[in-house]
Amino acid sequence: MFSYTDQNKFEHLQSALQTAFENEQAYLANPTDFLTAYHFIDTHPAFWTVTGDVPSWHWNTWGHCQNVYHGAYNDEDDGKLVIYLETGSHLNKVEDGGKLYQEHYHDYRLDVWADTFEQAFIKLAAMVYKFFDHQGVERPDVPHIKPAWVLELDERIAEFKKWKDEEL
Known about the structure:
Helices cover 40% and strands 11% of the residues. The chain contains four helices and five strands.
């Protein structure tokens, strides 16, 4: 029997973070290369998930690309193939309403469309880098254009809050 101490588990997480950092550096050195973009996303700490209860030493620190929602369709206007990808970081706040660090949300800011699967992952890597730092923490106040459905949702939430406050 082999023992696996807390120190070993900590060192494993340190090694995973170092791998993620090295993958980010490789991506930054060659951001148009599919393989470096893929590995950057696959090991990025924003996508790490914990197995079991929080706190835990047991984290899934790679393999996120297999969980990226993807699809393909022919564009209605020109008939060209379009590949799209959707993903999001792990839930990291209690008020998000899910299991902390065990579930991912759909982050519309990371949605990408491209002519090929490879181009889509390259675009996704650029969005991940734009919105999340090397430790998986969301970068504050990154400007982005909200789609119409998000603006409408924001408006309805504000109306609901106003109505709720008037009821009290």
